[in-house]
Fold this sequence. Notes:
The chain is α+β, with helices and mostly antiparallel strands. It has one domain. The strands form 3 sheets. It has a 7-stranded antiparallel sheet with strand order 2-1-3-4-6-7-11, covered by helices on one side. Strands 5-10 form a two-stranded antiparallel sheet. β1 and β2 form a beta hairpin. The relative contact order is 0.21.
Amino acid sequence: MTTFDVTWGSDTAGGADKVTTADELDRVLDAITVTPGGLPYSVAIIVPDGTRYPVTLEIGIGHPERSFAYYVGPGDDDAAWAYEPDLTPVDGIMIDYAGQATELWPERSRVSTHAARTAARHFITTSGHRPDNLSWDDTE
Length: 140
């Protein structure tokens, strides 16, 4: 069974945990709270394999309606941003990316909160495969 690292925020104002099941991941994601006036978090779910760029899924947690998903696969060119074809981009969403306030590009906001959570569960249950509930743009 694969153990995944889950990290969010900065070293001083974030968190980290380890999970092996989708239910454990749900409990961790449910416990991540955004303080009043705070920013939604970029949460990294990582297959810790000792490589410089491990297989990773990043999702946004904390915005009431929108999220994002970014997948880094095992190949050198195996990275992609997710989107839902029926969602339109949203301007001005700020996220906490490793402790830094970062504006989410509008085209990256085309993922619902529910779809991002579903993708994260898929990532865990398939031991790090790219989730198939979203469309993917790998043209960076």
